[in-house]
Input
Amino acid sequence: MVRVEPIGVDVVVPEKTSLMRAAEAMGLKWPTVCGGDAECGTCFVSIDEAVAPCLPPVAPKEEQGLQLVPRWKRQQAGVVVRLACQLRPTSNLIVEKRGVRWRQEGGIDSPAISK
Amino acid sequence: MTDLYAVEDHTQYRRRKTAEVVERSSKLDGPASRLTDDECGPDRIPKEVYTSRDWFDLEKEYLWPHVWQIACREHDIPEVGDYFEYEIVDETILIVRTGPATIKAYFNVCQHRGRKLKEGCGRAERLRCGYHGWCWDLEGNVVEILDPFDFRPETIRSVDLALKPVQVDTWGGFVFVNMDSDAPPLSEAIAPMPARVDRYLPERLRLKSWKRIVLPINWKVGVDAFHEGYHAFGTHPQLAGYMDDTRTGLYERWDNGMTLLGASNWLETMAMPSRRFGINPDPKDVLMTMLEDLINSGVLSGDDLALLDLVKDMEFPPGDEGLELIRSMFAGYRRTQMATLGVDVSEWPDSDVVAPEQFLLFPNTVGPLQLGTGLFFRFRPNGDDHRSCIFDYWDMQFYPLGEEPDVTVEDVADTSLESWGQLVYQDLVNLLAVGRGMRSRGFSGPRFGYQENNLKFYYRKLAEMLGWKGQPRVPAY
Output
């Protein structure tokens, strides 16, 4: 289970599923531009450095995407930054991600597409 | 704290904001007539506009010879006798400084045998042809013919041999030319741009860098990419952390072809993450992200790194209050910076001090211009090739008077991230992919939405020009 702050929601992440996908499946709107391809760096989360050893390793694809996260973020002391679209957590975690919110009906979250 | 992310109906929002802009700025329209959103143009155009040789030939005949276009900067020819060759499709035009405050332009061709007179740029007292040595003064009068007695007098009358003039005028430090002697004056063609952006002192801008590259795309594919804000979210994801793309896109258009992607609402666009994302932005987070990216992408100059150091350890109040503080801090910083350059903007409102105006100078130059910096993107056909264009990237800023660097063009060999920086690189990736993709049988032509109204209007205006003396042979939807 992953606790997402500051919204304070617990996300149950099934095996082999990314944190972002699991959150979306619950009805959360997660900040992303590329939609989960590790191409925009927008979905990144900050995690306490102390729990870094419990995280699965960073694959080359994620490493590439992380380059798009602002440098000052990546260099912040005491914090590791990971992409929520690539991170498949295997243990309980607390992550910080501003901008996560419940998906709204209508408006900007569900554009009307004419058939 | 107000709800920063309340989803106001977009159409309502834009109509309200557009009305505000019209109210505020229409007194500056001058001889140009403003068009409404409903008058902009077609939602769809056929892809042949970009891909067909026929359409290109129409442009060659009815657009380029009749439209005011940027040839160079005034400081490309600072001294009397300096010349600059501007090439457009099959034409070559020579811009010559004939006096401290006078510039002339001629078709760059020897009247004897048709040799191109001058190549590139340089300085000359007289314009001598390299073929048989015929020579003209800077005013375009023939002054030397080798063995004139060998010609029948009526063959070499001075009046016939004078270099053929091209209309020339200047604005904002740019030198414009128009091959059509009947064309209306520049001031009419580019209104209301001077009235709108002269406050930013564009003539004070000097080149920091000038890059040029030939791209394998129709020139209009390039223009398209830089006068709508709709692509910002998909193409430049790094902007979404500090620029609300849902609040850009206040478009203004005038019947002479000019468009502004106005930043009159800058203060609710910048220092604000995309409204497509979440809630409660952390002001410090937004500010650091904004500064780092603006510096990386060259929008802020290297000097502005000092600002990053300044704010690194500052604390900001949460929410609206913090964001407001950031905006006024940014404006204050800019005022101080301008003061050191001798530009007094102490009385200006914050929005004017920091906001860019992104304009299209019809038909082929686009750019954001703000106080102290300007980026200009110019696309023109690469000679007579409808599938290839020349892209000029002019990165300009203010310098202390007398300390302006002497920058000339750098021909860049590739479209890599290293050569162009993140922002332009992301656009270049699109340009190449669009140029490649749109030739496919699987594509019939682009479709434009509200946020691409500038493009609808652009193609309406272009079609008008091409139909002016000829009938476009391109099918209409």
